[in-house]
Amino acid sequence: MTIQLTKGDITKIKVDAIVNAANSSLLGGGGVDGAIHRAGGPKILEECIQIRNRQGGCKTGEAVITTGGNLPAKYVIHTVGPVWHGGDKREEELLHNAYTNSLRLAEENNVTSIAFPNISTGIYGFPKQRAAEIAVKAVSDFKASTLKQVFFVCFDDENYNIYKLLGVEAV
Ligand code: AR6
């Protein structure tokens, strides 16, 4: 499995699955969540509402899957990263879980390529350097079978440079 870095808008990436940094309500929001629902159209929200009706949303660190609506990606995996409260509220473990549970769900759906945004590092305020270290470790430690390509898609220069310095190959 390759792990690579790109810069830009995750809604434009042609992979089997893109990951959304959602919130527990699954009803949309700002940041990358807003961008994905805007670009993907109403079908994604309809599916999120069905999941919410079935299981009452998505807990922090967990993940759910919908189709990609109008996106180039086939699926959207919605995960919920932790809100940063200073570091003693299991934030690191929960962020690790968000990555690992997204990868697991991808494999259950025979996904071969997946793209992650920098979960929790926007509105949720997780320190970017530490978040990148956790993301790279969670993906590197994952025992993949169907997954062949993982992309970290950085929207801002600061995150992009952090991943580059961690040694992730830029493409
Ligand atoms: N493509 C890729 N990355 C993006 C894009 C995009 N189009 N837009 C923003 N980012 P955030 P969080 C980056 O705030 O911190 C929402 O309201 C952004 O630069 O989207 O996990 C949800 O509903 C940042 O690096 O997510 C939740 O309530 C990263 O995506 C809450 O925000 C994550 O920033 C989740 O907060």
Give a verbal description of the structure.
The protein is of the alpha/beta class. The chain is globular and about 40 Å long. Strand 3 and strand 4 (75-79) form a beta hairpin. Strands 3-4-2-5-6-1-7 form a seven-stranded mixed beta sheet, sandwiched between helices. Helix content is 38%, strand content 19%. The model has no long low-confidence stretch (mean pLDDT 98). It is built from five helices and seven strands, in the order ββααββαβαβαβ. It has one domain: Leucine Aminopeptidase, subunit E, domain 1. The structure holds ligand AR6. Residues 1-171 form the Macro domain. InterPro entries: Macro_dom (IPR002589), Macro_dom-like (IPR043472). This is O-acetyl-ADP-ribose deacetylase.
Secondary structure blueprint with pairings:
Blueprint: E1 2-7, E2 17-21, H1 31-40, H2 42-55, E3 63-67, E4 75-79, H3 91-108, E5 113-116, H4 128-141, E6 149-154, H5 157-165, E7 169-170
Parallel strand pairs: 1-6, 1-7, 2-4, 2-5, 5-6
Antiparallel strand pairs: 3-4
Helix pairs in contact: 3-4, 4-5
Ligand AR6 binds next to helix 1.
